[in-house]
Write a structure and sequence with these properties.
14-stranded antiparallel beta barrel; 422 residues; Porin
Amino acid sequence: MPLHTHASPVRQAVAVYLTLATLPFAAHATNGYFSHGYGVNSQAVAGVGIALPQDGLTAATNPAGTAYVGNRLDAGLNYFAPNRGAEIKGNAFGLDGDYSANGKKHFFIPEFGYTRQLSDSTSVGLAIYGNGGMNTQYDLNPFTNLGAKGNAGVNLEQLFISPSIAYKATPEHTVGVALNLAYQRFSAQGISPFAGASAAPANISDQGTDTSTGAGVRLGWIGQLSAQWRVGATWSSKISGKFDKYKGLFADGGSFDIPANYGLGLSYQPARNWTIAADYQIIQYSAVKSIANTLIQLASGNLLGSLDGAGFGWEDVTVYKLGLIHEWSPALTLRAGYSHATQAVPQSQTFFNILAPGVVQDHVTAGFTWKADTRGEWSAFYGHGFNKTVNGQQSIPPGFGGGEANVHLKEDILGVSYGWKF
């Protein structure tokens, strides 16, 4: 089978990826807790990629792009440095103070992509990447005065393995499908005071790391409208997941699904060496009970972990991305991008989101690709997520002493990858 022609380097790259995946790579909170993009070249243009396939990771955004990048292998590593924390004011139980969640500061996110053209009409690929995640570690526990002990925080990691196939139905229209195999890890510590509001109080905190596996699909289409214009669309299904060790924390006995998401993309070449592209994406957090249910539901008897249990109160996120690419010379390509996302965390829900302050809304990125020779190329990018603070309004329930919780996050990302064409 043609896919096995270069199986040895593929196996080696997968082995390297799985080795790197043992590193702490969870703090990937950008658009909610989804990554802002997949693949260094896409990340350099703020995650644009639905109608702009650039490398072997393209199936993570749009599997139809597998048909556009040729035979290649890409392996990369991102360094992620978030700065997150919270402030509590006006609390009757003495929780007031400024709290840093930066007990862990350095995270590494590996990525791997492989694509191969089987015929003029059919291409296959494999993308392995961190879909998203969230990490907080409060060495000074915000909930100590409620009886908590030790550090407080959560750690969520999501690894995707996505084989894909793309088919050119006509010279202008390509469709693709990817199988999303998802592996999740989660742990929580130092939040035992919430056990009194849980349907399973023994399974809310300090249960070690739990894991979950699930599967879904991503569908995609790319249409070449003219030599200059290209459009694309993609949709990814919800993926079921469950953390039994934390059935007292997440709604429906520990259910923690990965939300469905979809988007549209457009790319335009006004000149031979210039490309402008944009994506529009929606992440449907509101369709996942454990993420979307509000803490206010405790007042209605919906305890944490129950069927319709209280949660983090996240809303759907809409993301607007814009990217610019300039081929400076045959050897050097320059990239830049900007993205804006709507806010996932309402002001009324900041108290529980001390654990998950995924509130960044604006990113700027820049990067380049240097072609070392006819087959090999190095790519790198830098991204900055601007500091965002969500100030609470009626955010702490009276049962926890009232007052307000303000949460904040900013982040810096550096990524480098090597691509080999064959």
